[in-house]
Design a protein that fits this description.
By secondary structure, this protein is mainly beta. 15% of the residues lie in helices and 47% in strands. It is built from 4 helices and 13 strands.
């Protein structure tokens, strides 16, 4: 294992502890300007996110109707009633974003797919960097004011649905994640910088509880005047 990655994983709870769990759950509250650009209404109501830790599966409840939840995998997205009957579903959902830009409207399945892969990525970072086919390397550090953040560049295989194939993760002196850069390929490939903070601990696993995603300028700095997505995470547990 890359030694820098090994140190990061240990600082977030350790690989042995992570491997003892199979599911993660969290309450999330989401906001920001992206939803309006997509023709969607985002309310401040809390929802419960469940993710599989060692394969890419996720579910959000409720979604739309109080009786509905989502079922996400890279190959399929569905909205499902509590009795198991399907409201809507789409196979090979990534293809449905072809030709999209930042302000292309989304339907509920677009939104559910985006939510599924994004929250799975966030709730399994940094441990997913150890999954098969994922490649990591440390690149040039980043100066953030008087601080220096070390940067881990991660290249994901096609089998993992996420924002983009290559993403950069910035870590502080305590090896906590400070920032996450990527392009949003399902929305025209715009550049984003996500600021993360307010770490919490759940069942021995450490993770940030607040995420704020902004447009990223050509100087690689976030435009703090344009908040695209906000995510607050609480009531986390691993089982």
């Amino acid at each position: 294992m890359n030694m820098f990655l090994a140190e990061i994983i240990e600082a977030h709870g350790g690989l042995d502890r992570w491997r003892s769990f199979t599911l993660g759950e969290a309450t999330i509250i989401t906001g920001g300007g992206l939803w309006g650009l997509k023709g969607l209404i985002q309310d401040p109501n809390p929802r419960r996110m469940t993710v599989s830790l060692h394969e890419e599966r996720a579910s959000l409840k409720p979604f739309g109707d109080l009786d509905w939840h989502t079922e996400f995998t890279p190959e399929r997205i569905a909205i499902v009633r509590s009795d198991g009957s399907i409201v809507r579903e789409r196979t090979h959902p990534r293809a449905s974003f072809a030709g999209h830009g930042l302000d292309t409207p989304w339907d509920p399945l677009h939104r559910a797919y985006f939510n599924g892969y994004a929250m799975w990525t966030y709730l399994t970072t940094p441990f997913l960097f150890r999954m098969a086919g994922v490649r990591v390397q440390e690149v040039e550090p980043w100066a953030e004011g008087s601080r220096t953040w070390r940067v881990l560049r991660v290249e994901f295989p096609d089998s993992i649905a996420t924002h983009s194939r290559v993403q950069d993760f910035y870590f502080g002196e305590d090896l906590s994640l400070r920032r996450h850069d990527y392009t949003v390929d399902v929305a025209g490939g715009f550049a984003a910088a996500q600021i993360v903070h307010d770490y919490i601990e759940a069942d021995g696993i450490r993770l940030p509880s607040k995420r704020r995603a902004y447009l990223r300028g050509p100087d690689h700095r976030p435009n703090l005047d344009v908040l695209l997505v906000s995510i607050d995470v609480s009531e986390v547990r691993f089982t």
